[in-house]
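quick one before i forget lol
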Amino acid sequence: MDKDGASIPDEEWERFLRTAEAGGDDAPKEPSARARMVARRLREEPDRPTGWREYQQPARQRRFRGRHLAVLLGAAVLLVAALAGGRVTGWFGGDGEETPLAAESEQPGGPPATEAAALRPTREEPFRGSPAARWDEGTAGIHMPAARATGWMSKEEVLRALTDSRDFLAASSLDTGVLRGRYPHKAVAFINAQQPDVHSYLKTAFSEPSRKNDPLMLFSRFAKTKVRLVGDVVKTRGRITYREGERGAVEVTADVTFVYPVARADAGSDEVARTIVRREIVMSWDDPERVRTEQGTFSLVSYRADTTNGGCGPRTGYFVPEFGDERTDAPDGADVDPYDRSTSMDARMREAAGARCGTATRS
């Protein structure tokens, strides 16, 4: 529009484009590299990336043809050249897989978009085609709430309990040694030694793993003789919450999804797969005057995990991801989107009740 609000006639736009192409004195100057980049992105991806709060419906594809596309590109170049590059770049956000998501401070309203799901991961881009491409890595992807005095703890003590809870997640599901199959000594040290049933479970789980006593319910482990991690990045998304629990304890709940890119351990194997684990762990930081506990440890209240491509056969104490056409077991559970965090773990466990293996709608 011009300054009076009237639409610019098509003839004027066509004259402008011809003049710009001819390179006359009154032609616009060559746009900056940033302007050319945005113009190229507009040609290749005319839609804005879907925001993380807009997952209820995937964005519909819009296509523009002929003169209308040229007009849009010409207008975009002028706009970029006229305004500060940082502001305009923020509007378009690069391609959908590069723009990081805001932290998950609350349960999302729907699953992530699926437009890139057909893209296959590679050794150079192990999260390609996955919503995790836009997630943070390691503990940076776990949202931490503000601390406040709760139960028997002061604000500072609550902050320490939250930090230690996050450190437990790092030691149990992100530590490089543990991921390669080592015993999680550091993580186990966070668990109250005065819980004999828990420590009995841990001893059995690591010595004689079974469906009933499975270390993978709490820890992420791969057999390094069969599987190797691709790169040193694990993508995460989730949040930590807390409330006052029994006997004035501070009860911390962690609900986090971990995405592990893996390949066969065989030399020369380039195929990349992903194992995706969503864990919900409830930890009680007890008042030592009311509960037998040791400083710096929590009592384990509950734990559960929902795993995609971790193996459906006998429990070995390690994830057993499948590659290519290796799947032989027929799934007996419902379809599940492993990246959909809008469904609570309660609902997810009800859907999976009685089933041994479900079908992942994407990896």
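fyi Residues 2-7, 24-96 have pLDDT under 50 and may be disordered.
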